[in-house]
């Protein structure tokens, strides 16, 4: 992956937030680093943390999208072991300099914990393809060493911030430029916008080089399908009936999706979970692979009940991704845009899972962790449907 830093394009203004926004857009504009709402960045002065607000795409972020918070207060809360994770998360909002400012990123405390002026967090495909395997810690130690110590999986927010702080304090050396977040992503940092961005690329390139050296980079391909569209349409109808609202279909028949759908080990590697929990918000935890939507729905209901104790009203039990040897991949979404989003995210997942499976046994975060992420980040489809409904009432 090449650096997109451009001296001519980088803002010359003395306002450091302008540069922070510039490199954030470089990261956010690369779908191999972050996808749809994933990733976040920050900048800090001696007493203030500026962190990306939630709901803004990293690829379109401007100076005005960073929320200013009281850095000392955030760190004091983080250091106080008597404060529970839930209280800590509630306390973040009270540290905003301006109460009306946007809700800051869920990883605000992680950004506060690290002693660098610039911090970036991404879900880089190549890093996930290296790390998301059984024996993740050993593999990461082999590939990244003390450049980026590995942090065990924790839920986003307070729990993740606390463990990152601990790992950094215990394991960082003078060479350390980031952290690998097991089954989640990567963090990089530095003391300028340019340095921090290049440190992120350094870790990604290390992962890419290692995968290439292990023969795990090339993706399997198959001939492009010409059949199966009727089947995809009938799956969409069945999925809509289960979801309780009409879903839109997006078919992605490519040499890679077809080769993936035809893999002999598909039932194993595709049924672990997504490479980073945030992807499940758009793709659900698992794709449909046998065309039996009723059986899928029964399994999904049981997964939600086992992990969350119920089927929350925010989550339905219909698939968003279906794989089939005839057409490869099809995705379902609340509208055309989100069907396309789900398809694009799953195409990245295919890349990550295929590369991880070429050098190890692919793993994701646990079912409990994915369900929690689906619930906490989910619910966007209901908001989209409400907006679509209001629009149709207006016309
Ligand atoms: Zn993340």
Give a quick set of tags describing it.
3-stranded antiparallel beta sheet; globular; 395 residues; 47% helix; alpha+beta; 12% strand; single chain; 2 domains; 16 helices; 7-stranded mixed beta sheet; L-fuculose-1-phosphate Aldolase; binds zinc ion
Give the helix level as a range of percent: 40-55%
Biggest sheet features: 7 strands, mixed
What is the tally of helical segments?
A: 16
CATH architecture classification name of the largest domain: 3-Layer(aba) Sandwich
Give the CATH level 1 class of the largest domain: Alpha Beta
Total strands = 10
Order of helices and strands: HEEEHHHEHHEHEEHHEHHHHEEHHH
Multimeric state of these chains? single chain
Strand fraction band? 5-15%
Terminal Cα span: 47 Å
The named CATH superfamily of the largest domain:
Class II aldolase/adducin N-terminal domain
Q: How would you describe what is shown here?
A:
This protein is an alpha+beta fold and 395 residues long. It is built from 16 helices and 10 strands. The strands form 2 sheets. It has a 7-stranded mixed beta sheet, sandwiched between helices. A 3-stranded antiparallel beta sheet has the order 8-10-9. A hairpin with a 3-residue loop joins strand 1 (40-44) and strand 2. It is globular, with a radius of gyration of 21 Å. It starts with 15 loop residues before the first helix and ends with a helix. The site of zinc ion (ZN) has 6 residues, from loops.
């Amino acid at each position: 992956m090449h650096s997109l830093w451009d001296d001519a394009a980088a803002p010359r203004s003395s306002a450091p937030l302008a540069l922070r926004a510039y490199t954030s857009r470089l990261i956010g504009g690369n779908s191999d680093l972050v996808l749809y709402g994933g990733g976040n960045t920050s900048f800090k002065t001696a007493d203030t943390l500026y962190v990306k607000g939630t709901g803004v795409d990293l690829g379109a972020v401007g100076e005005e999208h960073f929320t200013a918070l009281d850095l000392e207060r955030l760190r004091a809360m983080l250091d106080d072991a008597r404060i529970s994770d839930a209280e800590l998360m509630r306390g973040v909002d009270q540290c905003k300099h301006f109460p009306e400012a946007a809700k800051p990123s869920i990883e605000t405390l992680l950004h506060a914990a690290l002693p660098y002026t610039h911090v970036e967090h991404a879900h880089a495909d190549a890093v996930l393809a290296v790390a998301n395997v059984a024996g993740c810690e050993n593999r990461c130690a082999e590939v990244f060493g003390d450049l980026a110590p590995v942090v065990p999986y924790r839920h986003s927010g307070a729990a993740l911030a606390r463990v990152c702080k601990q790992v950094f304090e215990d394991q960082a050396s003078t060479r350390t430029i980031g952290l690998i977040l097991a089954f989640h992503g990567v963090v990089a940092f530095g003391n300028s916008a340019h340095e921090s961005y290049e440190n992120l690329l350094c870790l990604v390139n290390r992962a890419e080089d290692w995968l290439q050296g292990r023969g795990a980079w090339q993706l399997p391909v198959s001939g492009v399908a010409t059949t199966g569209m009727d089947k995809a349409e009938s799956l969409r109808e069945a999925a809509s009936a289960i979801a309780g609202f009409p879903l839109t279909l997006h078919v992605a028949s490519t040499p890679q999706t077809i080769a993936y759908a035809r893999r002999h080990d598909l039932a194993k590697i595709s049924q672990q979970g997504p490479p980073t929990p945030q992807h499940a918000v758009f793709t659900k935890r698992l794709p449909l692979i046998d065309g039996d939507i009723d059986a899928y729905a029964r399994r999904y209901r049981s997964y939600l009940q086992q992990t969350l104790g119920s089927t929350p009203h925010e989550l339905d039990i219909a698939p968003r991704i279906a794989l089939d040897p005839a057409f490869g991949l099809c995705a379902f979404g609340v509208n055309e845009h989100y069907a396309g989003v789900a398809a694009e995210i799953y195409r990245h997942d295919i890349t990550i899972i295929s590369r991880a499976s070429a050098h190890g046994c692919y793993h994701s975060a646990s079912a409990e962790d994915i369900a929690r992420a689906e619930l906490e980040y989910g619910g966007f489809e209901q908001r989209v449907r409400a907006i679509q409904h209001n629009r149709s009432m207006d016309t």
